[in-house]
Design a protein that fits this description.
The protein is mainly α and 187 residues long. The chain contains nine helices and no strands. The radius of gyration is 16 Å and the shape is globular.
């Protein structure tokens, strides 16, 4: 049901703001992954194929946006990294990656987001916020706040692992996206 809601949001956002399709297309790999797994029965094979499918979508979308020189949503870039690593793990049967992905529901997910957050905070002008229209100080401050929120989401996810995907991944992810939006608006 959640994946259908995300698909609906994706379509509505493209209809309402067609000029922002490049920014919204960052949702496509996650959406494709979620829909594939959901409608393929949520079996182990569905997760395997979902990661491979989502990983290829993530790579394609990221390459398109890099070519267009679009400042990407850093959280979604972390999600794309998560899908690419998982896709590679399943495609080439990389035991270390598969073990890491199998240990917790949200650990690898939020770890990939945190890795992108840390690297973009330290090495890009737009920071983890991905903001090009803010002062350097505001970007740095907001990026560190968002990175701290990501670490909290990771810890929450690990603590809530036994509660299922909703509480371990979906809820902290949506809270993280809300924090990102607030920081973008208010800094």
């Amino acid at each position: 049901m959640l994946s259908v809601g995300v698909a609906t949001y994706f379509v509505i956002s493209l209809i309402k703001k067609p000029k922002q399709w490049l920014a919204r297309i960052m949702l496509l790999p996650l959406l494709g992954f979620m829909l594939y797994v959901r409608f393929a029965g949520m079996t182990l094979k569905a997760w395997e194929n979902g990661f491979i499918f989502g990983g290829f979508l993530a790579l394609a979308v990221t390459l398109i946006l890099l070519q267009k020189k679009v400042i990407m949503d850093r959280i979604m870039l972390g999600v794309n990294l998560f899908l690419c690593i998982g896709g590679l793990g399943f495609l080439f049967n990389l035991k270390t990656i598969l073990k890491w992905y199998g240990m917790t529901k949200g650990g690898p997910f939020f770890s990939c987001i945190a890795a992108v957050g840390l690297l973009s905070t330290l090495f890009t002008k737009a920071g983890f916020l991905g903001a090009s229209n803010k002062t350097k100080e505001a970007v740095r401050y907001g990026s560190f706040l968002l990175l701290a929120a990501t670490v909290v989401a990771l810890i929450w996810s690990l603590q809530m692992d036994a509660s299922g995907l909703l509480w371990a991944v979906a809820v902290p992810f949506f809270v993280l996206k809300m924090i990102q939006r607030q920081l973008e608006r208010n800094l």
